Amino acid sequence: MGTTTPVGVESAARPGTPLIPPRPTRVAAAETPRAATASPIVVGATIIAALYFGREIFIPIAIALLMSFVLTPLVNSLRRLRLPRLVAVGVSVLLTVGIGAALATLIGIQAADLAGDVPRYRATIERKINGLRDSPVGHVTEYVANIGRALHGGAKEAGSPEAQPAAPQSAPSPGPEQAPAAPKPVLVEVATSPPGSLEMLSTVLTPVMHPLATVGIVFVVLLFVLMQREDLRDRMIRLAGSSDLHRTTVAIDDAAKRLSRYFVVQLALNAAFGIVIGIGLYLIGVPNPVLWAIFSALMRFVPYLGAVLSAILPMALAAAVDPGWNMMIAVAILFIVLEPLTGQVFEPIFYGQSTGLSPFAVLVSALFWTWLWGPVGLILSTPLTACLVVLGRYVEHLEFLDVLFGDRPALTPVQNFYQRILAGDSEEVLGHAELILQQCSLSSYYDEVVLKGLELAARDAARGVLTAQQKGAMRAALAELIADLSDRSDAVGGADGEEGACSALPMGPPPGSLDAAWTREGAVLCVAGRGFLDEAAAAILTQILGKRGIGARAVPFADTASVRIERFGPGPARMACVISLALDGEPTHLRRLIWRLKGRMPDVPILLGLWLAQDAGAIRLAGGPGRATVADEQVGSLREAVEAVLAAAQKDATGEAGTDTAPDTQDGAPRLSVPAGA
Fold first, then answer.
1. What is the CA 370 to chain-centroid distance, rounded?
2. What digits encode the pLDDT tens for the residues 590-639?
3. What is the DSSP letter of 357?
4. Which of 79, 274, 337, 523 is most open to solvent, judged by the fewest CB atoms within 10 Å of its CB?
5. Can you list the positions of beta strands (E) in 267-418?
6. Which pairs from 242-247 meet CB under 8 Å and 24+ separation?
7. How far apart are CA 525 and CA 528, in angstroms?
């Protein structure tokens, strides 16, 4: 790739000249909401009108740009052989012209040969048609046709008068004064002079002048695009956003490489498909297999209709050649096997999920470009839309194209989860979880999807936009989800680093290495806060600790309220975890809850899981300058809570105090000691 010349290098050579010339200051007029809405509509309508009325110019340019992506790897390979750019581009274009001319000549020869053989197949076709007429299908067809003719004849009779008296026709007898008969008209034949040489040449060249002109424009534009590729790239970078040259340059280069690789692989796969089809038709015995091989390869560029059209004509020819039906059935089986195999097996292997477009986008783009540019637009629809989607993924101002036409989900897994629990649809929530758990462990799914989705819910609740009915639906959906996932193992389903894969939480000590006191039910009390999502968060922590061998028990907030704290039985508790998805206003309530728990079980350390706190309230609960520490330890996520509990359990099992035997204090208050690397 060429290098980008810094802006203002030439002007810097003259002393006193600024590196970037100042631009005139423009005062933007205030836009009304109606004008702001109408502006994109006007721009879009203008672009569509320009593409429609200027299709004679834009079609060759579009074909040339798409061909440049195919020829760029060849030009780069020739450049690596120390060839000048002009020579490399010239060789690539001439090679393309030669291949195109050879294919066109071959198609013409094969088509002429096929046209000369058509009269030989007439007898076979007529015999098969007569056979179909004598078959049950033919009888049914004839019966339906007779009904149609009867209905049509009845309609005619109903519209005609019932009785029309015929006028009496009496031939008058010739009288003596009758005039003589008129003379018969003389036929005059206008003889045209034979056309001259210029007229014959004009008649022959007129149908091919327009295609030849289009081909000429394509290769001229292709030559200039390949010669000025770096300059065009720099201009695209400037248009896309020159404020971050590094990011924009990397994005544009990566997009060009991806498109080039996609088109080259697509061309290779379609060519291979055509070759296999040609070999299969040759073995079956279909005439002119080379013609149908080229036709099938070209038709695979056409979405939806290409595969059907490429099979119909060879099947029709096989039916005309073979007196029976075996040849046509063999051709049908050949296409039925090869087309799905190529589209569903080889295409995903070589370049992922085909074009990166959603099925709806492929359909809409095919309809749009066909309406805009006709049959050529149908062939170019998928490549052009793929280019737009790639640009949308890398250019911020065109991101809407990726959202509309790309095959990536419109919502992130977190947003998708929140949207489904907001609707209270438990089945969809579970189905969404099953898809993600194919790549994630259960604990990672809770940590990276569920809790982040609950953070969105907590923020909406803090803004007061959630109704009581929506909160109840969320609680019910979460409770059902946690119960459905209780029997699932916590093994990682996908490797880290894959798209969509989650990072695993610590798995805990090996079975049998924990002290028996930590394995009894109720060894860790997961106490829920007052928030409407806190009980679900406490249930999640309880489930994850249980899968690591810790005897955890979920405690609802009602059991630790002021009126019930005296009747609360801690049991064999070794630690208490107060869990809350707390935002503004929650820390004061949690402080009172922790004081009540300390008064009820003073010897049990308390871990505060304030997972969503983003304000200073979390610091006040953990202590600070001039403040008394309320909780013994504070964590900010599910991962940290699991690590702290496992560290405390391992410390009791080994009899060690972690990395430091002295109690870890903050402002004189003891805290839990977490071993390094836990």
1. 22
2. 888 888 888 888 888 988 888 775 544 444 455 544 344 577 888 888 88
3. B
4. 337
5. none
6. 242/7, 245/4
7. 9
With b for 16 or more beta-carbon neighbours within 10 A and e for fewer, the 130-161 pattern comes to eeeeeeeeeeeeeeeeeeeeeeeeeeeeeeee
Q: Which residue has the higher pLDDT, 249 or 636?
A: 636
Mean pLDDT of 132-147: 57
Q: What type of residue is 167?
A: A
Q: How confident is the model at residue 513 (pLDDT cuts 50, 70, 90)?
A: low
Per-residue exposure over 455-477, b if at least 16 CB sit within 10 Å of its own CB, e if not: bbbbeebbeeebeeebbebbbeb
Ramachandran class of 626: left when φ > 0, alpha when ψ lies in -120 to 50, beta otherwise = left
With residue 238 as reference, give the H or E element that holds it: helix 229-241
| Pair type for strands 606-610 and 575-580 | parallel
Strands 524-528 and 575-580: parallel
Residue 432, classed as helix, strand or coil, is helix
Give the model's pLDDT for residue 299.
87
Q: Alpha-carbon distance 217 to 221, whole Å?
A: 6
Q: What is the pLDDT of residue 216?
A: 86
Q: What is the average per-residue pLDDT within 38-42? A: 74
DSSP for residue 529:
-
Angstrom distance (rounded) from CA 2 to CA 230: 5
Maximum separation of any 2 CA atoms in the chain, in Å: 152
* Residues 525/577, Cβ–Cβ less than 8 Å: yes
Q: Mean per-residue pLDDT for 371-384?
A: 85
What distance in Å separates the CA atoms of residue 198 and residue 608, rounded to the nearest whole number?
Answer: 96
The two structure tokens encoding residue 648: 């405390």
Angle at 166 between CA 160 and CA 168, to 5 degrees: 165
CATH class of 516-671: alpha beta
- Per-residue tokens: 229: 């590729």
Q: Is 561 left (phi over 0), alpha (psi -120 to 50) or beta?
A: beta
Question: Where are the strands (E) in 539-603, listed by range?
Answer: 552-555, 575-580
Tell me the CA end-to-end span of the chain in Å, nearest whole number: 47
Please count the residues of the chain: 678
Give, in order, the Cα–Cα distances in Å from 339 to each of 68, 279, 332, 333, 347.
Answer: 27, 15, 11, 10, 11
Stated pTM of the model: 0.58
Residue boundaries of the structural domains of the chain: 40-135+211-227, 254-405, 413-484, 516-671
List the one residue out of 636, 637, 603, 604 whose CA is nearest residue 619: 636
Continuous H helices in 17-54? 33-53
Structure confidence at residue 231 as a pLDDT band (50, 70, 90)? confident
Q: Are strands 606-610 and 664-666 parallel, antiparallel or unpaired?
A: unpaired
Identify any residues that bridge with 525 across adjacent strands, giving them in sequence order. 553, 576
User: In 3D, which of 483, 478, 486, 489 has the Cα closest to residue 531?
Assistant: 478
Least confident of 19-33, 328-342, 432-446, 541-555: 19-33
Q: What three-state secondary structure class fits 31? A: coil
Q: Extract the tokens encoding 491.
A: 């093994």
- CB burial class (10 A; 0-12, 13-18, 19+) of residue 515? middle
